[in-house]
Amino acid sequence: MKENVPELKLGIIAVSRDCFELPLSESRRSALARACGKKGISVYESRKTVENERDMLAAVEDVSKTGCNALVVFLGNFGPETPETLIAKYFHGPVMYAAAAEDSGKDLIHGRGDAYCGMLNCSYNLGLRKIKAVIPEYPVGTPEDIAVMIEDFIPVARAIIGLSRLKLITFGPRPQDFFACNAPVKGLYDIGVEIEENSELDMLAAFKKLDGDKRIAGLAKSMVEELGAGNPYPNLAPKLAQFELTLLDWAEEHRGARDYVAFANKCWPAFPAEFGFMPCYVNSHLAAQNMPVSCEVDIYGALSEYIGACVSGDAVTLLDINNSVPADMYEEDIKGKFDYSLSDVFMGFHCGNTPICKLTKESNTGMKYQLIMNRTLENKGEPDITRGTVEGNIIPGDITFYRLHGNADGSLQAYIAQGEVLPVAARSFGGIGIFAIPQMGRFYRYVLIEKRYPHHGAVVFGKHGKALFTVFDYLGVQDIAYNRPKALPYPRENPFV
After folding, report:
1. Residue extents of the structural domains in the chain
2. How many CB atoms within 10 Å of residue 341?
3. Cα-to-chain-centroid distance, residue 265
4. Contact predicate 282/242, CB 8 Å
5. Which one of 280, 315, 416, 425 is CB 3.0 to 4.6 Å from 352, fit for a cystine?
6. CB-based burial of residue 212 (10 Å sphere; 0-12 exposed, 13-18 middle, 19+ buried)?
7. ω into residue 355 within 30 of 0, thus cis?
């Protein structure tokens, strides 16, 4: 399978205003490159320092020839406003700007660079030219400080590049009564993402075309090995392998001018009857390989998952913000053990699309059947066509729950909430976990309900809110919500409660 997230090659270009000492900017650039090396950050240090527009063209050509796809423009001194901002215009990837702090109080005559002042003019000129760039929270610092900023920039740059080369492929219309997933696609084009929408019949025809394909046996064998003892249906593996190959072939044949692919596919009610299984395990297996496949044709869910895969470099999942934790269960398993109220916790669930690497290694983890579909399609009988989910408790630890979403009017909005999955058994079916987010009750009411978000949320494992916020801000999302502390009310929160 082709790598589905960008590999980053980072370059650094120093700039220098011609009335300042050029060696000052260059020596500070070299110190920054050394600081990056100490942190294990690989950077290409361009020797083309920019003082004018001709230098700018030469520097951009230099970093481009070496394969750099993301760039740090470093103000080693005040910097030339026009050339330094044009770097971001002519360079083909995301750019971060940062400036050097003064080195020592013992050298503030010839050794003073005034980059603190220069960043103001840099920002002003970026705005004049409507050029997008990443500027850290406090973009002035020592080489060590800026190396940390660059470390934070890397996952952001990876996501920006990935989105610029992403094609979202869908199969089937959104299910009836799932209008929450039926969001306008205009927002995708606004951020540079391509979309290809197909019929479920296209998928079925492509699947049948692979009957007897020689690759099926090998992939089926690896699936059985991955699931191990937690798989009571090893005979289902060839069908699942055939379906995964169907999606992989489609991605390769239809990616067109794009490098990366994510899917949003219809998975019920017709799918199990026509294909003979549920696609959940395959969705999870591809998500583990950084090719998210959202269920229920949730286009913005797939988009959100892909952003999380780029930011984290890890497997992600898409879950229903599903059900409350019963009070008796809270009293028994959570109260007094964890610092969360009953309204801070909820259960995140989906039928079985969470990668198995993100499920606990317990006896009940593994291949199952879709209980809800079994009720309606097999009358609660012996499961056959509803087999194919992968289920278990989601691993405990830090998470970020988030979503980038398209409103009915075509605009984009997003939310980000950091929290954790508690080490408490969910006592239920599906891929499921007990999630704890500080002030979740208020966030649920005044963000998720108030702003009319759908029931699907993406989950990335770890605390990645900082990078996600920067990505959404870079994309121009005006409304980025988060779980506010109690002392900070939401705009429409009732002050008398």
Report:
1. 10-164, 166-482
2. 15
3. 18
4. no
5. 280
6. exposed
7. no
Strand 387-393 relative to strand 10-15, pairing: unpaired
3-state secondary structure the chain: CCCCCCCCCEEEEEECCCCCCHHHHHHHHHHHHHHHHHCCCCEEECCCCECCHHHHHHHHHHHHHCCCCEEEEEECCCCCHHHHHHHHHHCCCCEEEEEECCCCCCCCCCCCCCHHHHHHHHHHHHHHCCCCCECCCCCEECHHHHHHHHHHHHHHHHHHHHHHCEEEEEECCCCCCCHHHCCCCHHHHHCCCEEEEECHHHHHHHHHHCCCCCCHHHHHHHHHHHHHHHCCCHHHHHHHHHHHHHHHHHHHHHCCCCCEEEEEECCCCHHHHHHCCCCHHHHHHHHCCCCCEECCCCHHHHHHHHHHHHHHCCCEEEEEEEEECCHHHHHHHCECCECCCHHHEEEEEECCCCCHHHECCCCCCEEEECHHHHHHHCCCCCCCCCEEEEEEEECCEEEEEEEEEECCCCCEEEEEEEEEECCCCCCCCCEEEEEECCCHHHHHHHHHHCCCCCCEEEEEECCCHHHHHHHHHHCCCCEEEECCCCCCCCCCCCCCC
- Rg of the chain taking only CA atoms, in angstroms: 25
Residue 180 pLDDT: 62
C-alpha span between 79 and 118 (Å, rounded): 6
**Cα gap 55→82, rounded to integer Å:** 12
Instruction: Tell me how far the alpha carbon of residue 26 is from its chain's centroid.
Output: 35
Among the listed residues 150, 179, 185, 168, the one whose alpha carbon sits nearest the alpha carbon of residue 42: 150
Q: Among 170, 167, 284, 273, which Cα is nearest to 227's? A: 284
Name the CATH code of domain 10-164 (choices 3.40.50.300, 3.40.50.10940, 1.10.540.10, 1.10.357.20).
Answer: 3.40.50.10940
Rounded CA-CA distance 462/464 in Å is 6
What is the spatial distance between Cα 292 and Cα 326, in angstroms, rounded to a whole number? Answer: 31
Rounded to two decimals, the pTM is 0.96
Token pair recorded at residue 128: 């004049």
Per residue in 168-227, pLDDT (tens digit) is 999 988 767 766 666 788 999 999 999 999 999 999 999 999 999 999 999 999 999 999
Q: Which two tokens stand for residue 61?
A: 């050509």
CB atoms closer than 10 angstroms to residue 300: 26
